[in-house]
Write a structure and sequence with these properties.
- The protein is α/β, with parallel strands linked by helices.
- It is about 40% helix and about 10% strand.
- It contains 9 helices and 8 strands.
- It has helices at about 15-25, 35-40, 45-55, 65-80, 90-100, 115-120, 145-155, 170-180, 210-215; strands spanning about 1-5, 10, 85, 105-110, 130-135, 165, 180-185, 200-205.
- The strands form 2 sheets. Strands 5-4-1-6-7-8 form a 6-stranded parallel beta sheet, with helices on both faces.
Length: about 220
């Protein structure tokens, strides 16, 4: 089985994330944020993204107002989930090839589950992805290993029969702690270069994914 991170791994979602965050900040009288700024902010869930956006543009709002700002961001973002978000080149073909070869595929992301499911369906992955675990699906999220372990338990799969594909330190740390081998993509959003994450393999293109999985000795887990 292959567990895949979403943002920065399978999809380039920063344009829509940045637009939604800029709209939120504009409503609060703040400046817009750039896509490069947002790339360094994503990966730890919605609440942290909103906090980082405010911190970068003049400071956090009052604690009593933060919850409302997070809710407003979610509304702004969910109105444009796939306006400019696209799969990375080769991602869909790689997932199709793995699925045809007997691989079970799942999403393990810190993005909220509802938004993740909408994106997966809208971008043509719905028939390929068997399960989606967002940052709000279980009690824990990456880098905590329980995010991965709870997903595998729900899919009746042992960690020894799975691998993780991601782009950030959260992905590598969670996979390591859960006992999974991990592959990093070179194109991700993480602030740490892919070759410094400590992943078992780094791929520059999705054409390299089957070979990386074979090198790790992980075999398809048929449903």
């Amino acid at each position: 089985m292959l567990l895949c991170d979403l943002d920065g791994t399978l999809i380039d979602s920063v344009p829509d994330l940045a637009d939604a965050l800029s709209d939120l900040l504009a409503e609060a009288g703040r400046r817009k944020v750039t896509q490069d700024e947002v790339k360094a902010m994503v990966g730890d869930g919605v609440a942290v993204l909103v906090e980082r956006g405010f911190a970068a543009t003049g400071g956090l709002p009052a604690p009593k107002d933060l919850g409302a700002q997070i809710a407003r961001y979610i509304a702004l973002y969910e109105s444009r989930l796939t306006e400019r978000t696209r799969p990375y080149p080769g991602a869909l073909n790689a997932l199709r090839a793995l699925r045809a070869g007997g691989w079970r595929l799942a999403i393990c992301t810190n993005k909220p589950e509802h938004a993740s499911r909408e994106i997966v369906a809208s971008l043509g992955m719905g028939d390929l992805i068997e399960a989606v675990a967002g940052g709000d699906t279980f009690a824990a999220k990456k880098p905590h290993p329980d995010h991965i372990l709870c997903l595998l338990e729900a899919m009746n799969t042992a960690p020894s029969r799975a691998a993780m594909l991601g782009d950030s330190q959260n992905d590598v740390q969670a996979a390591r702690a859960a006992g999974l081998p991990v592959i990093a993509v070179a194109h991700g959003y993480g602030t740490i270069p892919a070759h410094e994450l400590g992943a078992d393999r780094v791929i520059a293109h999705f054409d390299e994914l089957p070979g990386a999985l074979a090198a790790l000795g992980v075999e398809p887990t048929r449903g």
